[in-house]
Amino acid sequence: MTEKMILDGSRVAGEMKETLKGRVEALAAAGTTPCLATILVGDDPASETYVRMKGNACRRLGIESRRIHLDRGTTTGQLTEAIRTLNDDPLVHGILLQHPVPRHIDERAAFEAIAIGKDVDGVTALGFAQNAFGFAAYPSCTPAAILAILDYYRIPIEGKHAVVVGRSPILGKPVSLMLLNRNATVTTCHSKTSDLPGLLRQADIVVAAVGRPRFIQGDWIREGAVVLDAGYNEGNVGDVDYDACLARASAITPVPAGVGPVTIAMLLKHTVDAAEKAAATAGR
């Protein structure tokens, strides 16, 4: 039996952070502290956990984490005004709006209020368009993490058939475009797709981004496929049936310690990138 490759996201993220340390130190020596502002609306426990994790990751690298916690009753107008204030603050380099936001808020309007130069999570329509054309400064972090894992383990993309399960504007759609820009043939599946198992059995690369625990079954995976599980569900399980898919895949990301750590590392990288650009502009 061919040896299985476990795609260790913690290892990839660790090396990314080591590279970032020197860049953060150089910025600090020149008088700039990279700053990521995170906005949380309401009191969703999972969102609070995610924001806290991102804040802790920032502090460990010397990146300032500025947390804005707004009441659940915040209106769309109040949220967009808070975002515009951060846009105008030269000490803030990246803005992250934790989603989902309460239902009464127009999330898309809030995302669009983020200045493109501070859109470090790639959530704006302009950021999405730049990603589609292959020149986004800050592509969506989870799709970028998936590509980073493939590159780290030198898994070929060009000429491969990738099947993406999920079409959200910050995961399924952008990762489909990124794979297409790397010369993969891409099939994007969703809730209306006919014969999903049959399509998955044709895939060289499977990206699970559907948000349903253990949804993708082992017998849906072709022998030797590469499986990247971008899901994270209650109970620390992903969107694929890990043990069953492991039996058939040649390489697979675990959950946890797969795509998640690299997503956070990518967010930190984008924040440092933005801080470097701001420092270079200020020094002209």
Automatic annotation (TrEMBL):
Q: Which residues form the Tetrahydrofolate dehydrogenase/cyclohydrolase catalytic domain?
A: 7-121
Question: What does the record note on quaternary structure?
Answer: Homodimer.
Q: Which family does it belong to?
A: Belongs to the tetrahydrofolate dehydrogenase/cyclohydrolase family.
Recorded GO molecular functions are: methenyltetrahydrofolate cyclohydrolase activity; methylenetetrahydrofolate dehydrogenase (NADP+) activity
E.C. number: 1.5.1.5, 3.5.4.9
Explain the purpose of this protein: Catalyzes the oxidation of 5,10-methylenetetrahydrofolate to 5,10-methenyltetrahydrofolate and then the hydrolysis of 5,10-methenyltetrahydrofolate to 10-formyltetrahydrofolate.
- Name of the protein described by the UniProt record: Bifunctional protein FolD
Q: Where does NADP(+) bind?
A: G166, R167, S168
Pathway assignment: One-carbon metabolism; tetrahydrofolate interconversion
Q: Which InterPro entries match?
A: Aminoacid_DH-like_N_sf (IPR046346), NAD(P)-bd_dom_sf (IPR036291), THF_DH/CycHdrlase (IPR000672), THF_DH/CycHdrlase_cat_dom (IPR020630), THF_DH/CycHdrlase_NAD-bd_dom (IPR020631)
Keyword annotations for this protein? Amino-acid biosynthesis, Histidine biosynthesis, Hydrolase, Methionine biosynthesis, Multifunctional enzyme, NADP, One-carbon metabolism, Oxidoreductase, Purine biosynthesis
Organism encoding this protein: Paenibacillus arenilitoris
The Tetrahydrofolate dehydrogenase/cyclohydrolase NAD(P)-binding domain extends over 140-278
**Which GO CC annotations does the UniProt entry carry?**
cytosol
- Kindly give the PANTHER family that the UniProt entry links to this protein: C-1-TETRAHYDROFOLATE SYNTHASE, CYTOPLASMIC (PTHR48099:SF5), C-1-TETRAHYDROFOLATE SYNTHASE, CYTOPLASMIC-RELATED (PTHR48099)
Q: What CDD domains would the database entry show?
A: NAD_bind_m-THF_DH_Cyclohyd
| Signal peptide annotation | none
Parts forming coiled coils: none
- Catalysed reactions, semicolon-separated: (6R)-5,10-methenyltetrahydrofolate + H2O = (6R)-10-formyltetrahydrofolate + H(+); (6R)-5,10-methylene-5,6,7,8-tetrahydrofolate + NADP(+) = (6R)-5,10-methenyltetrahydrofolate + NADPH
Q: Name one GO biological process term.
A: methionine biosynthetic process
